[in-house]
Amino acid sequence: MNIVIIGNSAAMVGAVEAIRKYDKASNITVISDEKYHVYSRPLISYYLAGTVTEEKMAYRDKDFYQKNNVKTILGVKAVSIDENKKNVMLENGDSVSYDKLLIATGGKPFVPPISGLEKKNIQTFIKLDEAKSLKSNIRPNSKVVIVGGGLIGFKAAEGLHELGADVTIVELADRILSTILDNESASIVTKRLTNDGIKIKLNTTVDEIIGDDYVKEVHLKNGETLAADHLIFAIGVTPNTDVTKGTSIKVNRGILVDKHMKTNLDDVYAAGDVAEGYDMLIDSNRVVPIWPSAYMQGEIAGLNMVGVESTTKGTFPMNSIGYKDTYIITAGIINPPDSSYDVITKADYDKNSYKKIVLKGNNILGFILINDVDRAGIYTGLIRDRIDVSPFKDHLMKDDFGYVYFPKDLRKSKMLDLEVH
């Protein structure tokens, strides 16, 4: 059997490792427009800052492809799929035939249509080559404007600040990291950034790029003009579904998949940031672009492609990021949509710490932890396992909260889980 995987990141690794547990014989071909051995994308800001080398970014050992008998076609883009002939067409004119296909093309950066985009020194920040470009061009006091104060913009700002750049974040929302923080937690993180000299412009965005060949200034919707030697678009990513154009593969925001990670075509699967999979908290499909989820979805797809039935229990948003000595872990629903949710908070602004737990009924549905992150694993497990927290709800915010507060039967089952794993 010929198994083809388009994409060379976490979902690919999950699929390959799952396939090879049960199937040593099938041919596996991995196609990627990037030329690199599989690497950890979340580390590109650390590479930019110089705290991680390119070698240390490897997500698996250098012999990963050889050990798993994987043929790679790297540095060549897959441009289309012929679902009738079961071929993947490449930009160089070649084609690769498949019996089973996994689309794991990830996301692509969103860049709004703004006057002046053709100028030089404008880029996005989701790939290693983009980090390399910045690393070679940024000088101390280079003026860098980052459009977008979400996860990508936040990490870009950290890396650029380490290089000595003069960084300004421009964010359309009323706070940075608006999808994973509330106003209180965002204010703590904002203070930490601004203490380092990173400037933040909220409630506005860039509407014009000014310069000749190179960007020199950007004009904001609020009327301000900022000097800029480099402009980075970090507004976010959208599922990279380009390869499905002209096929009957169903796409909403991402490629629609069932709990087997299968598309509407029998032999075609999707996983990772390109897939619109099951979110257990909202009980419906949506794109959840996080690294651990991509691996797990790839694993489920890989098993099903070789006939080992497996279904996903679903995922939910989780993020663990930081800026120097400020640590942030969030999960699930953190800004409740209506009054049917309960919210518990605890803050110590002198220590720049903040905890928020969101509940509905007797279940935790989300949390925010800033600089007080020791219980993150327990809270995440309570969300994932849909545990009734009513017997120990009053203890959730205690500094020593842990299994000791669980009812005896629950505590015993959790301890058994720990022993098994």
From TrEMBL:
It holds the Pfam family Rubredoxin_C. InterPro entries: FAD-bd_OxRdtase, FAD/NAD-bd_sf, FAD/NAD-binding_dom, FAD/NAD-linked_Rdtase_dimer_sf, Rubredoxin_C. Keywords: FAD, Flavoprotein, Oxidoreductase. One of its GO terms (molecular function) is ferredoxin-NAD+ reductase activity. Its cofactor is FAD. It is an enzyme of class 1 (oxidoreductase). Residues 1-298 form the FAD/NAD(P)-binding domain. Residues 317-386 form the NADH-rubredoxin oxidoreductase C-terminal domain. Its EC number is 1.18.1.3. SUPFAM superfamilies: FAD/NAD(P)-binding domain (SSF51905). This is Ferredoxin--NAD(+) reductase. It comes from Thermoanaerobacterium xylanolyticum (strain ATCC 49914 / DSM 7097 / LX-11).
